[in-house]
Amino acid sequence: MIVEWPIPVEPPECASASDKKYRSEEYQLKPITFGSCVGWLHEGQTKQGVILCESLGHEASWTHKLMRAIAERLAHEGLTVLRFSYPCTGDSAGDDRDAGRHAASIASIHDAIDLLRDQAGVTALTLVGIRAGALFAMLAAAGVGPRPAPHVDAVVALAPVVRGRAYLRELSFVHRQWLDTTSPAIRVAHRDEPCMNVLGHRFPADFVEALKAVDLCDVVRDAPTLPGAMLLIQPDQGDGPALREALLERGVDVASDPFREWPTTMQDGTRSRLPLAAIDTLANWIAERAPGRPTGVETPSRADPTWNGESAVALDLHDMTEQVVAVGPDRLVGVLCRPADTRPANPVGPAVVIANTSTNPRSGEGRFSVRLARTLARAGVTTLRIDVHGVGDSGPAALDDQSGVVYSAQSSDDVAAAADWLRALGHPEVAAAGICSGAYAALHAAVKTPSLGGVIAINLARFVWPAGLSLESVQKQRNNSVRGYWLSVRDWQKWKRLLRERRDLRPIVRAVAANAIARVSVPAKELAARVGWKPGIGTPRGVMHALAQRNVWTTLVYGALDPGIDDVRRHFGAIECAFRRSRHVRLHLEPQVDHAVYGAVGTDIVIDLCMQALGRDSARPVARVADPAAPDAAARSYASVSVGRS
User: Fold this and answer.
1) What mean pLDDT value characterizes the chain?
2) For the Serine aminopeptidase S33 domain, which residue ranges apply (predicted)?
């Protein structure tokens, strides 16, 4: 079913030249649910339709802004565009460990085709896929699976995955690279992963085996029918040339174009840039295939003032419901996840705003936010997964450069607005939760609005972001805590990497020096506080003091060697002493929690701690270590630590 969400799409005044190049005039944008999928329909004025097929896992998150930019560009040309998440991904129904995901992904493309033809009146159809999305698009178009091949006029493949086995090797390499940077405790925990895990995204065994068996060259040779035309936008590496030859042998009209911007495309959102040349190429190629249609069609605004900002059709997940909603005066995009027994007119119990991590869409890195929201819903807690300005689907247009979004004042303003929105629904208690930059936005949102009564900050890197400090400079620095570096001294593999990569040791030296200075400065500040000194609001101690004055509780969760614990030491003293006298702050150190919470064990630990913080039942008691600095604990280094008063 389709529900209308008319959104005026205009680039902000501060948009870059590349953002303005692809500005979209006002058109009708609708959040939709079909089957178990959630997506967006960009409604055009012609009978030509395009379905965007995203990639898998972290690649889907990293290229979300690209898929949105493509949809906006094509919609501006008057085309009807549908972009969506496959079952068990994004905001769609299902868990990523569910069986049958491979067939369900292909079937969802068939469902999307039926939707465009039956409900949007599309007669000419193009599938656009990136990476694994191109593979799924070709499998659907070729009729692989129980459903017959649909009529697809053309396919556009961006850096397509041609051979599933090679793709899985790439994913495994990416995950191994990350795992090599983690602590021994996290590496040990990953041995118990229930299935293939790539940066937090899980792929069950049957999905892996099905993907491993796919070779698009064989599919093309054996398919009873194929699209009439195909555009390949391919980087230098890859199996694109082999696919092109197979298509030509079957008489498909194939156009090829180099994907020169690929190195700056497939990166996380803070580093990536929109491939403007590739967007131009595919948009022009698709538009040229619609004879008789005038170019440059602009769709007039059809704003519906009677719509209240909440989608009329919810995704029914049996014991809960989820709805795409517009939040606050700026119409931030969010997903409201409610327990099944909660009625909109009479919300009960606490509610939680879940902030974006870095520039990942609201489903979260490794889909953590979805897991957290749905676990909390089963415990009776309502959550709102929010996209802040410039991330996911919030903001007037897909941003080319998202690096300025992370740790911005705007992000914490948006989380505060989301909390106000939940309070306006009638929830008596509202808390905010987030990982890393999301934790920062949650913490500072609590300073800005009285609507927030609690904060769950996971691996908070800094309590206050220094003026003038760029995200790029921080990313180039260290990714370990001082304690982690001391332990690494005994690891010869780390010494080999240090020499091989010629790493700059100055950030490490500065961190060690800062910890040494804190041994003197923190006791001095505590003594001054006892005689009446109050820290400034722009300081870490000032932030926590302001929250305590308003009786806001804070749960801090850190991996045992996370770099963020150094910020605690610098401003609040040794971990075993920090916040011990506080009635409002509780701090947990967990050895099996990695920074982005990719691991299955770490995910379960963090979700359990969130349940505890919200007064819900938890499956796991947290061990309390009275003095983690004692010789025995120091020798073990990775003991769970819980300090502060509940």
Assistant:
1) 84
2) 65-193
In 381-505, where does DSSP find H-type helix?
A: 409-424, 437-448, 471-475, 482-488, 492-501
* pLDDT of amino acid 472: 73
Please give the angle made by the CA atoms of 52, 58 and 60, to the nearest 5 degrees. Answer: 5
Cα 454 to the chain's mean position, in Å?
23
What secondary structure does DSSP assign to 502-544, as a single string?
Answer: T---HHHHHHHHHHHHHHHHHHHHHHHHHTT----TTSHHHHH
User: What is the C-alpha to C-alpha distance for residues 499 and 425, in angstroms, rounded to an integer?
Assistant: 57
Indicate if the pLDDT at residue 474 is higher than 80: no
Mean predicted confidence (pLDDT) in 388-404: 93
Q: Are 539 and 440 in contact (CB under 8 A)?
A: no
Q: Residue 528: what are its φ and ψ, rounded to 5°?
A: -65, -40
Residue 255 tokens read as: 């156009």
- Please give the residue that has the higher pLDDT: either 627 or 353: 353
Residue 267 to residues 66, 118, 174, 226, Cα–Cα distance (Å): 11, 37, 12, 32
Residues 6+ apart with CB under 8 A from 128: 50, 51, 52, 53, 70, 137, 155, 156, 158, 282, 286
Task: Please tell me the pTM assigned to this model.
Answer: 0.86
User: What is Dmax (Cα atoms) for the chain?
Assistant: 85
CA atoms within 13 A on the CB side of 498: 14
Q: Between vectors from CA 460 to CA 454 and to CA 462, what angle results, nearest 5°?
A: 115
Nearest-angstrom CA–CA distance, 42 and 225: 29
Give the β-pairing of 124-130 and 48-53.
parallel
Q: Are 266 and 59 in contact (CB under 8 A)?
A: yes
- For Cα atoms 597, 600, 601, give the angle at the middle one, nearest 5 degrees: 90
How many other CB atoms are found less than 10 A from the CB of residue 253? 13
Q: What three-state secondary structure class fits 323?
A: strand
For residues 513 and 485, which has the higher predicted lDDT (pLDDT)? 513
At 28, give phi and psi (nearest 5°): -80, 125
CA-closest candidate to residue 362, choices 380, 382, 336, 342? 336
SS3 label, residue 127: strand
Task: Using DSSP bridges, classify how beta strands 5-7 and 27-34 pair: parallel, antiparallel or unpaired.
Answer: antiparallel
- The string of pLDDT tens digits covering residues 46-60 is 899 999 999 999 999
Nearest CA among 436, 336, 343, 319 for reference residue 385: 336
- Predicted pLDDT of residue 632: 35
The answer to whether 142 and 226 have CB atoms below 8 angstroms apart is yes
Residue type, 181: T
Q: Which domains does the chain have, with CATH numbers?
A: 5-162+216-288 (3.40.50.1820), 315-465+536-644 (3.40.50.1820)
Cα 33 from chain centroid (whole Å): 20
- Token readout for 160 is 């397509």
Contact 101, 204 (CB under 8 A): yes
CA gap 449, 513 in Å, rounded: 36
